[in-house]
Amino acid sequence: MRYNLISNSLFIKNRKNFEAQMKPNTIAILTSNDVKHNNADDVMGFTQNNDLFYLSGIDQEDTILVLYPDAYKEENRAILFVRETNEHIKIWDGEKLTKEQATEVSGIERVEWNSEFETLLQYMAFEADGFYLGHNEHLKRVTKDQETQQDRMIKWCKQKYPLHEYYRAAKITRDLRPIKSDEEVAQIQKAANISVEGFKRVLSACKPNMKEYELEAELTYELTKSGGTRHAFKPIVASGKNACVLHYNTNDDVCKDGDMILLDFGVCYANYNSDTTRCIPVNGKFTERQKEVYKAVLHCLKEGSKLLKPGTPHADYEKQMASLVETQLIKLGLLNADEVAKQDPKKPLYKKYFMHGTAHHLGLDVHDVGLYSRTIEEGMVFTCEPGIYIPEEGIGCRLENDYLITKDGNVNLTEAMPIEIEEIESLMNN
């Protein structure tokens, strides 16, 4: 693996917390993700199921975790099933985890080959009253039209054991994962540190008439060189009017002299992610109008991030952030104060120039699991990302940091990434 081994004490603790929320005499079954295919015999690469990783630390395909804390036999209370290596796999793909290595990573004493899963589960299933099964539960779930290994496990389990009770493992992990341990924060911080260095490379490389993907390459270089697993998401390198497209990521346009570039990017390190956004002038010097818009957004970031503190309802935070942006839009001459005072609250005028939320959970997923009906708590990690988008002027500006919530407020995990106008201009011109 590219990243340093995480102490298995994290996964032991996570399993203990998960088991504490399971109903009596139930079995939890978590499966790995599929290896996604591209065309012919090509694959897109493997990304582990984050709930499985959270509970085991195993970063390998064809893995199953079974937890049965009330099992009569102690050896059945936690079993990890992994793929057995054979000569063909060794030659073509390399060796997989041994049982001993799987124990070292996960802290689970009993490790079996996954070919033994059905037989061993049979011995435990009729002793149990129900199952917790994993599923990709997310507001923006992208697997709704694809059958996953989780879907196949649900189908198989219900067919084989139709009269058992069934429960959602994701409901428990959704409750646990938003609160990050010190070990998890350390991984997010490593991801953020790589992002900082990648951004500095972009500042040094940027010049008029470059293609946007050339700057994307600088981010990719630093990510790979520093041991990052992958981009947290496909980077957005949007110059000029492209920055007004929120999810623009073709990155194939020319960076023109006088334009501003919006870079929204993140690093995945040890399956934990950073998510940052910065805006820079192509030629190293902001125009006066770009400065005005940039300062307005930076003001909203600085003031809005102060609202990320324990006890704050998320809806209240977003409402206050929208008010901050609205005030700046009036100062920029984009909205009329009198019209704003008379506006329909259900159709706020600021939506023309600012149309997205500004804080999401961050962790194993970039948009990490967690209910936004839950108040902000100590140990959570949030982004803060206000923006202003003016298509008619070819200006789109968004600024984003990552914040750890503490009892006294928050800590900016991306503090080291240049953000002040003077610093950005100085670095670009030196």
Question: Please, could you describe this protein's structure?
Answer:
With 430 residues, the chain is an alpha+beta fold. It folds into two domains: 9-176, Creatine Amidinohydrolase, Chain A, domain 1 (3-Layer(aba) Sandwich); 182-429, Alpha-Beta Complex (Creatine Amidinohydrolase), CATH 3.90.230.10. Helices cover 35% and strands 18% of the residues. The chain contains 13 helices and 19 strands. The strands form six sheets. A six-stranded mixed β-sheet has the order 6-5-4-1-7-8, sandwiched between helices. It has a three-stranded antiparallel β-sheet with strand order 9-12-13.
Quick rundown:
The protein has two domains: 9-176, 3-Layer(aba) Sandwich (Creatine Amidinohydrolase, Chain A, domain 1); 182-429, Creatine Amidinohydrolase. Helices cover 35% and strands 18% of the residues.
Per-chain topology:
Blueprint: H1 9-20, E1 26-31, E2 36-37, E3 43-45, H2 50-56, E4 64-67, E5 78-82, H3 87-92, H4 99-106, E6 110-113, H5 117-125, E7 130-133, H6 149-160, E8 165-168, H7 169-176, H8 182-205, H9 212-225, E9 230-231, E10 236-239, E11 260-265, E12 267-269, E13 272-273, E14 276-281, H10 288-305, H11 314-331, H12 337-341, E15 381-384, E16 387-390, E17 395-398, E18 401-406, E19 409-412, H13 421-429
Parallel strand pairs: 1-7, 5-6, 7-8
Antiparallel strand pairs: 1-4, 2-3, 4-5, 9-12, 10-11, 11-14, 12-13, 15-18, 16-17, 18-19
Helix pairs in contact: 1-2, 8-9, 8-13, 10-11
